[in-house]
Design a protein that fits this description.
Layout lengths: L1 H37 L5 H11 L4 H8 L16 H11 L3 H5 L19 E2 L2 E2 L2 H11 L4
Length: 143
């Protein structure tokens, strides 16, 4: 009888260990997949950092110019930004909040230089009106 009980306990232990090993392997696999996926997904912080770099600004300088507290934007690495702060950053860089959130899937945007209501930018900075006029003259053949 004692031999039978030891055998049952041994099988139960083996089963429990097998389940624990399986759970550990699944956790490691999921962690790997999520880590690899994160490499290809830009967060709102990644997008604002890219925009700031294009303008030669640090994240702290952007916070100062927009009127946000120190390290507010760095918190975007882990947290979802508030709507108000997202709007401030979108307005500062002249992009949409959808772009910052990664929802902007339009690749080819078109605009007419003759359209007076459109704000044209280059590398995140607004093109001055006199430069736009110069571009228009060049496109007309230098007239």
């Amino acid at each position: 009888m004692l031999s039978y009980q030891v055998s049952i306990i041994s099988h139960q232990s083996t089963y429990i260990v097998s389940v624990l090993v399986f759970v550990l392997i699944v956790n490691l696999f999921l962690d790997f997949i999520l880590t690899e996926r994160r490499k290809y997904i830009m967060t709102p912080f990644d997008r604002l950092k890219k925009l700031a770099d294009k303008q030669g600004l640090s994240v702290n300088e952007v916070e100062e110019k927009v009127g946000l507290g120190k390290n507010t934007l760095y918190s975007w690495k882990k947290k979802v930004p508030s709507g108000a702060n997202l709007t401030k950053i979108a307005d500062f860089f002249n992009v949409s909040t959808d772009y910052l959130l990664g929802r902007d899937t339009k690749k080819n945007k078109t605009a007419d230089l003759a359209d007076e209501d459109t704000v044209f930018t280059y590398e995140g900075r607004q093109i001055p009106p006199e430069d736009l006029e110069y571009m228009k003259r060049l496109l007309r053949g230098g007239k």
